Amino acid sequence: MEDIRISRRALMMGAGAVAAWSASPARALLAQATAALPASVEALIAQMTVEEKAGQLTLMAAAWAGGAANALNPISATATFDEQLAQVRSGRITGVFNGNGADMARRMQTAAMREQRLKIPLLFAADIIHGFRTVFPMPLAEAGSFDPDLAERTARVAAVEASAAGIDWTFAPMVDIARDQRWGRGIEGAGEDIMLGKAMADARVRGFQGRRGLGADDAVAACAKHFAAYGAGEAGLDYNTVDVSERTLREVYFPAFQTAFAAGAPTTMASFNELSGVPATANPWLLDTVLRKEWGFGGVVVSDYTGDEELIAHGFAADAREATKLAFLAGVDMSMQSGFYIKHLPDLVAKGEVPMARLDQAVRRVLAMKVLLGLFDDPFRRIDPRREKTRVRTPANLKLAREAGARSIVMLKNDGDLLPLPKAGKRIALIGPFVQGQRELIGTWNVYGSDAEAVDLLTGVRGAVADPALVTAVDGSGITDALPGGIDAAVLAAAAADIVVLAIGESQKMSGEAQSRVDIGIPQPQIDLAQAVLAVGKPTVVLLRNGRALVLEKPVLDAPAILVTWFLGSQSGPATADVLFGDVGPSARLPVSFPYSTGQEPYHYAHKNTGRPNPPGPLLEYKARYREGPNAALFAFGHGLTYGRIGYADLDTGGGRLAMDGSLMVRARVTNSGTRAATEVVQLYVQDVTASITRPVRELKGFRRVALKPGESQVVEFTLRAADLRFVGIDDKLTVEPGEFRVWIAPSAQAEGVNGRFVLA
Ligand code: NOJ
């Protein structure tokens, strides 16, 4: 079973599992790259000056047309395009990122191939996070599909589109586990769970890189980022201090990276944060002891944007020269955007402070990657202005965006089966700041897509119903500010309608980099709008627009139906309409817990029990709970309803005894007693009841998307092995201990589903 297989393989990649790593595809890939490094490339290294070597380790934001990169990152060292061309000719840069297409790439590559002394091809990188010109749901939303195959397919299309514009390398997937919803960058990852994170990391790397090898003209190299524990910043503040135990690093934050490398990702990006006092960008334990020596990673480590420069602000390096030395010697092969390596490495090498062998090692890794990408064979293989126009936004790609969008929508509640809505005979009022206009559709971190090319809700709904004239739209409010007369207009529209669809939530600017929030609720003007609209008393569906888990309170919670619609990309409107009107049943699940209150953050389902858990039921004194509520989610990780009526029964734990070298089948009967088809995400959780290191109250160990026709019943089966029950022990190494386990087959991390016990002996 795919999910268990991923889990087991990734677990095996833990502490000391060098043997497992050696057998992994990434190892093979990189070993092969180095072994296959043509003799001419070795000869090239022998001919390179120290400056040319440092140039191979220097990556800069593209300057063409002002550069898209600067719109997404703080403006740092800037250059004109002509200055950048001069750097290419003199071999002072290895490539550029977030550039502007095939024409730019062709001009730069031509300069490199014709006018640079050694004619080393340039590398073009970009943040292809959730699509290129066809924009797919934001990665967090897509993770909610619990469908790695879907994630692989969208990443594949993103790579096919991006590669035609000359892009060789994507700064994705982001595989950071995000357990604090105040953090804005959770939107780029797969949420709070380790297993789901690994499954998505695996799928996305495979999708970006394709199945024909990195040399294929439609493959882009993946970069697992941000190494490591970037999502664990104190108080959910972006870039903030991280201080977690080695055990937590190994158990929570490392596995998705190990999975990405096992899937073949040849690069990783050092994170901005410090890790228990030592910035990741200059952390020899992280970048050398663990990554290189323990895991055998042979690929390229790139800094994040000015990450080496920031060692000064961290208070870790006195100046630029020292920052360069510390980052480079710790293991950062390539410097992004500060220009520090080209400025300072030559002198550091000349003075003997950086060994030439270390310089050659980093250069060899970068050239190996360029070889792998086929750039030495044909530096123009991905630069194709014709394909750049014809391969993008094809009907098939847009269809996939629509499918992915619909599969990412989570139905939180549906009282009285208000959904799906009828397509005919009803007047529908669409109300809220997200219902109309080419804005707030694709979400953050999209360099090449645009809201102007995306389809809004009004268009999607009008396209779905029998009589588009019965659909009205009114904003009612701005996102953070009230609109003069907005509520009055909204109330009038609601009063004149049979059904209200109220779209409220966060702007796309409220999540993403540097967009941490102190309050993860819906802005007050929209709450005021919701209050007034719900008071009209019409059947109302709330559509949430959000880049993270939200805190939902009254009056929003009083709405009979609530759908989480995130930022769904190019086909946002039609995808939402597909679910609203039942052409596609909702099947996604929450990849992050929705807490009762922001004050609970960081909240995640796999928390520990504590010595004083509050049993289910009333809040008790001197228990681990808040004055105002339980240590639980309002809508749990894994929660999501369907248009079916799903029941769980007949747990079978296969005799209840798992041998250390054996396997255990755990089964349950899942039945759809409703009148509509449904796809249920059946989840397997375990709890290690007693262990030498305390274990979470539940851990996801498997999931399956199961399609059930009305009245259909299926036995859903999971296989557990001892390796699935491993954890990082007292010595920070993987261990597995005999003993008793609880097991659930359930529809969410908080649902009881069917549950029982087994023994590992
Ligand atoms: C900074 C971000 O942290 C990183 O994820 C991104 O790849 C770079 N900027 C380049 O845009």
Please give a quick description of this structure.
With 761 residues, the chain is an alpha/beta fold.
How would you characterize the overall build of this protein?
- With 761 residues, the chain is an alpha/beta fold.
- Among the domains are: 400-581, Rossmann fold, CATH 3.40.50; 642-760, Immunoglobulins (Immunoglobulin-like), CATH 2.60.40.
- Helices cover 31% and strands 18% of the residues.
- The protein has 24 helices and 28 strands.
- The strands form eight sheets. Strands 11-16-15-14-12-13 form a six-stranded mixed sheet, sandwiched between helices. It has a five-stranded parallel sheet with strand order 4-3-2-1-10.
- A hairpin with a 7-residue loop joins strand 27 and strand 28 (754-760).
- Helix 16 (320-330) crosses helix 17 (340-350).
- The protein is globular.
- It binds 1-deoxynojirimycin.
- 1-deoxynojirimycin binds at residues 69, 72-73, 98, 127, 171, 225, 304-305, 513.
- 1-deoxynojirimycin binds next to helix 6.
Give the bound compounds.
1-deoxynojirimycin
What is the averaged pLDDT score?
A: 94
Shape label: globular
* Intertermini distance: 23 Å
Which percent bin holds the helix content? Answer: 25-40%
Secondary-structure-based class equals alpha/beta
Name the CATH superfamily assignment of the domain at 400-581: Glycoside hydrolase family 3 C-terminal domain
CATH architecture of the domain at 400-581: 3-Layer(aba) Sandwich
What kind of sheet is the major sheet?
6 strands, mixed
